[in-house]
Write a structure and sequence with these properties.
The chain is an alpha/beta fold. The chain has one domain: Rossmann fold (3-Layer(aba) Sandwich), CATH 3.40.50. The protein is built from seven helices and seven strands. The chain has a seven-stranded parallel β-sheet with strand order 4-3-2-1-5-6-7, sandwiched between helices. Strand 1, helix 1 and strand 2 form a beta-alpha-beta unit. The N and C termini lie far apart (45 Å). This is Cytokinin riboside 5'-monophosphate phosphoribohydrolase. One of its GO terms (molecular function) is AMP nucleosidase activity.
Length: 196
């Protein structure tokens, strides 16, 4: 049994045009169900999000959806989830996701997915949580993003330690294994309450 019991997944509300991404979402949902990991996600029934939720539910897994009230339209929201939580706004949605999850996985998506990834990893960097964050690099989707992060390290805007907070793999099993082995870093000295 996995050490992580609830994983929040950030991913697209569109399907995209690469079937490998749809397949990866189905594999991830199936893996969650078979390993007693509850899926926490944005509650949509469309796109990669919907595929992921359907695969989890089809294999008798548990799915918690969290959605802000302004997005709770019948053509968007999945009403067949194990639990549906409605929040006042987007910020409260992300806060609730962070509070109830043991870790995070990022699948391919657009602006919203990247925004969620960077906010949650910034919170880890600042010591606001100590949970693992995994990037499932399906079919090289995030190769260019990873190159950009390497450039940020080389140019002195991102420390190597913080770069390594993002766990990356192209298989579900290996990524979850890395997440289970994750050890959160100590807070940087400049964030320590006891500093002079």
């Amino acid at each position: 049994m996995s050490e992580i019991s609830k994983i929040c997944v950030f991913c697209g509300s569109s399907d995209g045009n690469d079937l490998a991404i749809t397949d990866a979402a189905e594999r991830l949902g199936t893996y969650f169900a078979k390993n007693d990991i509850t899926l926490v996600y944005g509650a949509a029934k469309i796109g990669v999000m919907g595929t992921l939720a359907k695969a989890t539910l089809d294999h008798k897994g548990n799915v918690i959806g969290i959605i802000p009230s302004f997005l709770k339209k019948k053509e968007v929201v999945h009403l067949g989830l194990t639990e549906l939580i409605t929040t006042e706004n987007m910020h409260d949605r992300k806060l609730k996701m962070q509070e109830i999850s043991d870790g995070f996985i990022v699948l391919p998506g657009g602006f919203g997915t990247l925004e969620e990834l960077f906010e949650i990893i910034t919170w880890l960097q600042l010591g606001l949580h100590q949970k693992p964050i995994g990037l499932l690099n399906v079919n090289g989707f995030y190769n260019d993003l990873l190159k950009l992060l390497e450039t940020m390290v080389r140019k002195g805007f991102l420390s190597l330690e913080n770069y390594e907070l993002l766990l990356v793999d192209n298989t579900v099993e290996n990524l979850v294994g890395k997440m289970n082995s994750f050890k959160a870093p100590q807070l940087p000295k400049w964030l320590n309450d006891s500093r002079a």
